[in-house]
Amino acid sequence: MGLREIRKRRGITQAMLAELSGIPRPNISDIETGKKPAEQLWLVTALKLADTLDCDPHELLH
């Protein structure tokens, strides 16, 4: 399961996730569309997203 699936499952928009996590919405979009592969996420970014979405950081890589 990737970022988009986890975010949608939680009922959160990209804008809401950006506000809650402190990660700019364009960065979230780039991760979701593959412009920035999840494998290349900085650890702090992955941890912020996982914390905000209440999921394991490894889930963001699939």
TrEMBL record:
Which Pfam families does UniProt cross-reference here? HTH_3
**Which residue intervals define the domain HTH cro/C1-type in the entry?**
3-60
User: By its UniProt entry, which InterPro entries does this protein fall under?
Assistant: Cro/C1-type_HTH (IPR001387), Lambda_DNA-bd_dom_sf (IPR010982)
Gene Ontology MF annotations: DNA binding
* The name this protein goes by in its record: XRE family transcriptional regulator
